[in-house]
């Protein structure tokens, strides 16, 4: 906005006002959604590349709002800013544990579930308590739960974050670094806490067959995971050739549209049975 154009100020104010109003509306819609059970978890299979078997699933949240399905990228940021992610996150953990316990009961023994965590969920310090409570409630082995965190969690090197991760890892809960390769460049954090898995970001994977640079990055991450004795998962595998190339490079697990997009729990069960009978 320029000073000699008073109208441009007005325009700017209106834009700001509108975006604030939109955010406030979304906050109140999210509160309503929490109270009225408008969330659902979808599940995307995690596949063992060498055997083409499903070994687990990542839980991904969806919001049913007025008949349409809102993707997480459109509301998680607002949930984070407003703190509502704490409540939503608790529901996600509960629901994912419940579902994973169900898989064990129907004979899908050892099938893991992965839950995405926001850095905001570590602020209050009671995350381990909530997670232990959910595991206990559904009698779920902590080793079947994987928590996906991003490198951004380690930017300020907070001791209370490491402490909470340590408490949970001691019980057998596994930690995966999501979107690996896109964030924080100092990898020191990997040596100071017990991650079990690196998830190679899909921006390196999706088009890697046509892009030597991306292949080099994928190679480097796979090598690094092996040297550090971490598991690796490639995200965003959309075709068979990419899956085969990843396997040849030493990648162990994959996720992506090639096998399945995230699907509702009943559809995921059908997928499991299909793979089990194949
Ligand atoms: P993410 O954890 O990196 O999840 C992977 C995203 O990639 C998912 O989008 C998934 O649907 C999509 N995807 C999977 N395979 C493919 C593929 O082959 N090709 C392409 N193009 N995309 C693929 P989604 O479900 O829309 O989730 C977006 C992000 O929202 C997630 O990224 C995660 O950061 C966040 N999120 C989702 N659920 C939760 C949750 O329960 N809690 C929190 N805190 N964040 C969540
Ligand atoms: Ca994830
Ligand atoms: Ca474990
Ligand atoms: Ca990811």
TrEMBL record:
Signal peptide: none annotated. The keyword Lipoprotein does not apply. Keywords: Membrane, Transmembrane, Transmembrane helix. Residues 23-276 form the EAL domain. It comes from the Bacteria. This is EAL domain-containing protein. The chain holds residues 357 to 634 of 635 of the full protein.
């Amino acid at each position: 906005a320029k000073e000699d154009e008073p109208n441009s100020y007005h325009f700017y104010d209106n834009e700001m006002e509108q975006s604030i109003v939109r955010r406030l509306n979304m906050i109140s819609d999210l509160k309503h959604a929490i109270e009225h059970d408008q969330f659902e978890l979808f599940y995307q299979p995690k596949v063992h590349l060498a055997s083409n078997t499903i070994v687990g699933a990542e839980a991904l949240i969806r919001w049913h709002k007025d008949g349409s399905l809102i993707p997480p990228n459109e509301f998680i940021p607002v949930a984070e800013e407003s703190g509502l992610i704490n409540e939503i996150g608790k529901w996600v953990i509960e629901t994912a544990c419940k579902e994973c316990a169900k898989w064990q009961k129907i004979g899908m023994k050892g099938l893991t579930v992965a839950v995405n965590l926001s850095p905001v969920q570590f602020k209050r310090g009671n995350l381990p308590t909530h997670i232990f409570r959910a595991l206990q409630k559904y009698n779920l082995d902590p080793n079947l739960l994987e928590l996906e965190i991003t490198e951004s969690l380690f930017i300020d090197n907070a001791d209370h974050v490491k402490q909470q991760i340590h408490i949970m890892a001691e019980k057998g809960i596994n930690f995966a670094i999501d979107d690996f390769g896109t964030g924080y460049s100092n990898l020191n954090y990997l040596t100071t806490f017990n991650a079990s898995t690196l998830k190679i970001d899909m921006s390196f994977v999706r088009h890697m067959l046509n892009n030597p640079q991306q292949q080099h990055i994928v190679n480097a991450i796979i090598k690094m995971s092996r040297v550090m004795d971490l598991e690796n998962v490639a995200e965003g595998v959309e075709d068979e050739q990419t899956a085969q190339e990843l396997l040849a490079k030493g990648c162990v697990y994959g996720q992506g549209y090639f096998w399945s997009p995230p699907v509702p729990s009943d559809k995921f069960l059908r997928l499991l049975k299909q793979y089990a009978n194949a």
